[in-house]
Write a structure and sequence with these properties.
heterodimer; A: 501 residues; two-stranded antiparallel sheet; 21 helices; 74% helix; B: mainly alpha; 2 domains; 7 helices
Amino acid sequence: MFDSVLLALDNLLTVNSMGFLVMGTCIGLVFGAIPGLGGTTAIALLIPLTFGMKEFEAITLMGGVMAATSTGGSVSAILLNTPGTAPNAATTFDGYPLAQQGKAGLALGAAATASALGGLIGVITLVAVIPIAKEIVLLFAPPEFFLLAVFGLCAIAVSTGGRLLQGLITACVGLIAGFVGYDAVSGEVRYDFGIDFLWDGVKLVPALIGLFAIAEMINLSVKGGTVAENPEMVKIQKIFDGVKVVFKNYPTMLRGSAIGTFIGAVPGVGGTVAAFLSYSTQVQMAKDPETYGKGNILGVIAPESANNAKDGGSLIPTLAFGIPGSAETAVFLGVLILHGLDPGPTILFEHEDVIFTLILTLTISCVLATLIVLALARSLALLTLIDVHVLVPAVTVVALVGAYALNSEIGDVFVALVFAVVGYWMIRFDYPRVTFTIALVLGEITERSFHQTMLISDQNWSIFVTRNISIILLVLIAASLSYPSFRRWSKKRRMRREGAA
Amino acid sequence: MNILAPGKRGALYFALGLFALTVVFIYLSYAYAPEVRLFPLMVGYTGLILCTLDLVGLTDTGLGRSIDAAFSGKVDEETRKVPKFAPKLSRQLIAMAWMVGLTIGIYLIGFMAMVPVYVFSSMLFQGKKSVKQCAYGAISATVFIWVMFELLLKYELYRGVFVE
């Protein structure tokens, strides 16, 4: 192992490799910050560039992109309430209110630091967990995948600030939207209304661009003024307070990183769930849950540490079993295959130096991306002072081009528009968009796991209560759904006691 | 007698829309084979029950208040708050009309022609900016998109229904 680390260092410490690493980090930050682009697009677009490169050079370029995108995405999530990448959506809940309160610098500092530390913890876990990765992932069978998805939806609905019913409704609507198109289980095309474009289903990227970026632009356009509610209050001198606050609240960062690494390692679930689950766990464990969604800095630290830690976690199944943990790692898998590296046991035993080159790249890129964001935070925070009538047209056109660019389909622009209108009414009437998004992401895996469970059990529903992990997940679902009633009961009891006193 | 909770008329229309969507979805699901519609129907009926509860929760009745309180975790006096920000419907429709106009424009004449037209007119009519500022904005946005997507990323952006 030590020889592999030395070989990896030898690979990395060349002018070319370091140049590609810096280039990958900068590209990752830019693609992460621009809503609708993201790491998957960046990696896919860069694949042709790697044709003439040595395998470790290609890995440094791609590793740089992967480690930096979510850090870049946090910038637009905090300043504009439009997550650069889907996993940054959870950062908007408290990051944007902080920006509105004039604490954009604090939020950016905390997000960048939590991202770096989360990323490092994910990478360290990757090194530690590789030998036992198989056992961990194999603990989860279809019943557990199904219940994990249901638990994720319920937990997130509960965390939406007293809007559990509306959160569950939007989760159902998100699942309904996810049913459109080709059904992987039966092979049948459903709910396509005879439109060929819908055979592939509702594509996630245009839907998310509409739901978050453009819906927010409509909302800003209706409100007018600047993104910051009171321009006088925009103070950007607290960047390093943001760094300090992460170290001061290290349990939140460690918990978020642990969730991110674990969820990242579960194939198909990915960074979005990791970030939202980390956020909802933080809210549920907090003594002051009512302050979340209104600008609590811990609501920024929790998702940001999780969505960067998931990079290390998602590489566990990718490298160990050739099973991608996310869309981004799926494309990365293609890069490895293109360069003659066969993911799975072969790469573990025959190309350990390549794995350590990737690990070192992720480590350096995490820190580098954070330093760049910290250095530019002051200028970036000024974005919140831009007049919305300048910002709205600029962001809208870039978002629509982003919606079109991924698949070069004009239909995706209309999908973005439809979701933008729905998203605006959801903002207006306080229906959580987050549960809708998660349901849309998890729709396919939820339905597939459900059908696989029914096949395994021969249509016997008792399978959900005869397996240990399933029982734990069912208890967690019940606990999360009864949480608002419990909160109301304890609040009433406290009020009664205070009244008596 | 108005049984609707104060300030909830708009929310009622939205909730009714979601209810209707769920009903239509359930109706459409029955066109598929039992094994294909099993999971969608589970979701559809769950959604229908939740939408019904939401509609009842919007009413200013004992049952409505109980439902609202049970799901929100709020005590009774907190559940009847009227939303603070209520923009005019016309203003909201105008903001949406701009987005619809932009999308249709992109479909008809493509990105590179529609982007400057939209940015210029949006800044001029919505933002009340000077013609010079609008022209700078339109040129900057168009150049950025051209350089970023066409020149650097080698995307061929949509040119409009007449060209395609």
